[in-house]
Amino acid sequence: APRPFSAFGLPITLLLLLGLLAQLVDGGTRVVAGKVHALTDETFEHDTQAASGATTGDWFVKFYAPWCGHCRKLTPTWDKLAKSGKKIFSVAKVDCTKNTVTCERFSIGGYPTLIFFHHGKMYKYKGGRSLRKLEKFAMGGFKDSESLDVPPLPSYLQTVFFQLVVQLENLMEQGLWVAIPVLTGFCLVISLMLAGCIIYLCDSPKSIEVDKKKNQ
């Protein structure tokens, strides 16, 4: 008897479709010198190549939240930093209220968090926020700070999970009348997945062998 692939594959397909719907398809942005780049979950690794430390050079990234007063106060200085360092390093920002996968990846716990990426390593900036001090750090001062390995890219399932959580949180803000049907559908998908797994395991080659012996 053939394995019930359809019972197992349908829930997986539905989950993948949910993940695709939760993502904004973006092939990356062109790096422009002297500009603060707005990075997203989809473009971060493509543009910075932080994990590999490859061809796009050094990056100074601000992780922030729009409601953060200190983040807003830093904005003019951050813009000036992008212009002053345009031939040496790139300057970027990540909105953690919209890009939870990236911010979870780097364990961002407060705003703003400033991280310098250099040759596959990362250096957290903890000094004053004047233009002069930020420039000094980016021009080589980071070497006096502790170097940390860049966390690996999250798996596809982790990415889907984080994005689904964000989508559900957004729906909850709109009201229960919107969230409840979506939660019901999500639970249905999970139930189908579990049912498919159980059926798949029950119809394993060992059980098929037992069935054949009984029929003989």
Characterise this structure.
About 50% of the residues lie in helices and about 15% in strands. It contains eight helices and six strands; from the N terminus they run H-E-H-E-H-E-H-E-E-H-E-H-H-H. The chain has a six-stranded mixed beta sheet. The longest helix is centred in the last third of the chain and has 27 residues, at about 175-200. The protein is elongated, with a radius of gyration of 23 Å. The protein starts with a helix and ends with a helix. Mean pLDDT is about 80; it is low at about 1-10 and about 20-30.
Write a short abstract of this structure:
This protein is of the alpha/beta class. It has eight helices and six strands, in the order αβαβαβαββαβααα. It has helices at residues 5-22, 44-48, 69-84, 100-105, 131-138, 156-174, 176-202, 205-215; strands at 36-39, 58-64, 89-95, 113-118, 121-125, 148-149.
